[in-house]
């Protein structure tokens, strides 16, 4: 759904595209129940 109007967002302000990106990220984290931050685990092999 978001990519449907991608051509319309090309000339949009950066602040507006950032707002959409934040909303999309929050929504996807809520849907997948992913944590906000996942620390990088060092490779111990």
From TrEMBL:
Organism the protein comes from: Aphis craccivora
Protein name per the record: Ribosome biogenesis protein TSR3 isoform X1
């Amino acid at each position: 759904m978001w990519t449907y109007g991608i051509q319309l967002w090309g000339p949009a302000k950066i602040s507006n595209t950032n707002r959409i990106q934040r909303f999309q990220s929050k929504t996807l984290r809520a849907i997948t129940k992913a944590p906000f931050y996942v620390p990088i685990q060092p490779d111990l092999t």
